[in-house]
Amino acid sequence: METYEIFKDLAIILISAKLCGLLAAKLKAPQVVGEIIAGLLIGPCVLGLVQQTELITGMAEIGVVLLMFFAGLQTSLKDLMRTGWKALLIACAGVFVPLAGGYLLYSCYYGFAPGGTSQFYSAVFTGVILTATSVSITVASLKELGYLKSETGTTIMSAAIIDDVIGIIVLTFVVGMKDPDSKPVSVIISTVLFFVLAVVLGVIIYRGFKWLDKRYPHTRRIPILGFVLAFAMAYVAEKYFGIADITGAYVAGIILCSIDDSEYIARKVDVSSYMIFGPLFFASIGLKTNIDQVTPSLLLFCILFVIVGLLTKIIGCGLMSKVLGFRGSDALKIGVGMMTRGEVALIVAQKGLQVGMIESRYFAAVIFLILVSSISTPIVLKVLYSKDGTKATAK
Predict the structure, then answer these.
(1) In a domain? residue 395
(2) Which residue range is the domain that position 169 belongs to?
């Protein structure tokens, strides 16, 4: 491939991703769905205008690192601490039940496999994909309805954030277990050591950035150093601890989320991600998705995957909310509010494809789940809140 061919590919990817993203937004679907569909249309499965290359793959990996760094920057530690143990328990249930449900779905559909086999890891990873909750879609839904700052809204928001943190830890552990040379104890030790190092270095780095913030407030050197931290943490996590690079990027965002210029850094990251690297990442998923392999059997699995994905979040989070003292209708709202999936589920699925835990054809199931959950959640929440007879104050 000639070097200059990449410019043609980038032009096609960016314009098609933007147009399809805008069309998806017009249809009340997340723009990321449109960007993925753009990848399907321009890729080998339909038009064949763009082929997946090492350079596109590398730029897409930058995109996923920036997305997780941005997610970390948007995390509110104060909100996490304020909601306390209730949100933590709801999030734990929202991870465990979908994880078990995904594993059982794959195993019942394709057969139970002994531990350590490729089929066993595929079953486990199917559950891992279902653990993530889309904070952005959940927040957008609650804000539109005017219930973002209500008790249930705050609980959903905090639980969704904790849910993603736990999901990333689970992802890190499962990916580490896939290594044939790894042992459960070594994976646990590596994971613990990384987070201990992240806490120790995080305190030092946080203080350093606070000093820079006071000395050079709102200057471009702050986000530049933020980018450096994100890429460095991603590299250290993957290279020296065998942990997913997205975990390191997310931790980098967490370290900086409380400094004064965290929003300034987030805006700079969002510009780079939104304009180039984000669309490349989501479109690359479409490029990798092989719809030619979507057989009637796989289509049935996709439908069951969506059903299990929605119900396990409602059951896990809803039942735990009920146990913690929320009345029945509020517990159901929390369960429904936690069932949305978005970019984190795609990121997890992408990582599974990269390490060989799932096949590209299963991206169709993930895309279907994101589309259905993103459209159905606002509708169901609106119905549930309308039965209360009162309107929360939008803030």
Answers:
(1) no
(2) 55-386
